[in-house]
Amino acid sequence: MIFLKTEDEIEKMRAANLLVGRTLAEIAKIIKPGVTTKQMNKLANEYIRDNRGIPTFLGYPNPNGPDFPACICTSVNEQVVHGIPNDIPLHDGDIVSVDCGVLLDGYNGDSCYTFQVGEVCEEVKKLLRVTKEALYKGIEIATAGNRVGDIGWAVQQHCESNGYGVVREFVGHGIGKEMHEDPPIPNYGRRGGGKMLKNGLCIAIEPMITMGTHEIYLMPDKWTVITRDRKPAAHFEHTIAIHHGKPDILSSFKEIEMLEV
Ligand code: MG
Ligand code: MG
């Protein structure tokens, strides 16, 4: 069932998503070679709770294995999504996708950014750039009257025209009082296909893009998803509202990007 949000609810969603954006920016400040993803998780946990949020990923149920044990997903290099924070130090040249979700005043925020660790090679930088571009192409087309398939089409054609793979098994989603609501938002699709986008619809658009094959593999921990060919993957995510007919980005990369320049 799709829940369209009121103006008041959209503003609550914005507050939750801005907290996610600020949390990701706090994490960005400590990312460098030698830092562990567990240290990043500790910081996220403290920052979210200090700001009255609840880290929604912690304890997220898994029908096939243990509940998710951390506040953020940290997916390094060939890890696509749902990487579990651990004690392995990041290395110069790594990339790490940090996915973060919070509940604030009853509404969810969800956003992900793939960070560079130290100096990353040009080939991988291009993967990150194209994935982020694809996210914005998906957002741009998310106007009232367009359809879910238009978003997937925009993301897919940009990534595949650059020779990259689009993961099929994991998709974006509606979001609101629940982290995952209807409708699913695939990163592939057909123009004009799927559900119509209406004012008040809040969705997370999240391209998961691979340098090689789009085929993936689930690790024995039952969470971590890696590319089958072990080539790197990138993941950028914004939560948006269809608001006054247009896409309104509720999460923010502004504070992260200020640190990058
Ligand atoms: Mg997410
Ligand atoms: Mg999401």
Could you describe the 3D structure shown?
There is one protein chain. This protein has one domain: Creatine Amidinohydrolase (Alpha-Beta Complex). Helix 1 (7-30) runs antiparallel to helix 2, helix 1 packs parallel to helix 5 and helix 3 (122-140) runs antiparallel to helix 4 (148-161). The chain contains 5 helices and 15 strands. The strands form 4 sheets. Strands 8-7-9-14-15 form a 5-stranded antiparallel sheet. Strands 1, 2, 4 and 5 form a 4-stranded antiparallel sheet that branches. It has a 3-stranded antiparallel sheet with strand order 3-12-11, with no helix packed on it. The mean pLDDT is 98. With 261 residues, the protein is an alpha+beta fold. Strand 4 and strand 5 form a beta hairpin. One magnesium ion binds next to strand 4 and strand 5.
CATH H-tier superfamily: Creatinase/methionine aminopeptidase superfamily
CATH fold description: Creatine Amidinohydrolase
The radius of gyration computed from the alpha-carbon positions, rounded to a whole number of angstroms, is 17 Å
Tally of individual helices: 5
CATH architecture: Alpha-Beta Complex
As a percent range, the share of helical residues equals 25-40%
Largest β-sheet summary: 5 strands, antiparallel
Q: What's the SSE blueprint?
A:
Blueprint: H1 7-30, H2 37-50, E1 54-55, E2 72-76, E3 79-81, E4 95-104, E5 107-116, H3 122-140, H4 148-161, E6 165-166, E7 172-174, E8 181-185, E9 202-205, E10 208-210, E11 216-218, E12 225-227, E13 233-235, E14 238-243, E15 246-249, H5 254-260
Antiparallel strand pairs: 1-4, 2-4, 3-12, 4-5, 6-10, 7-8, 7-9, 9-14, 10-13, 11-12, 14-15
Helix pairs in contact: 1-2, 1-5, 3-4
Bound molecules: magnesium ion (2 copies).
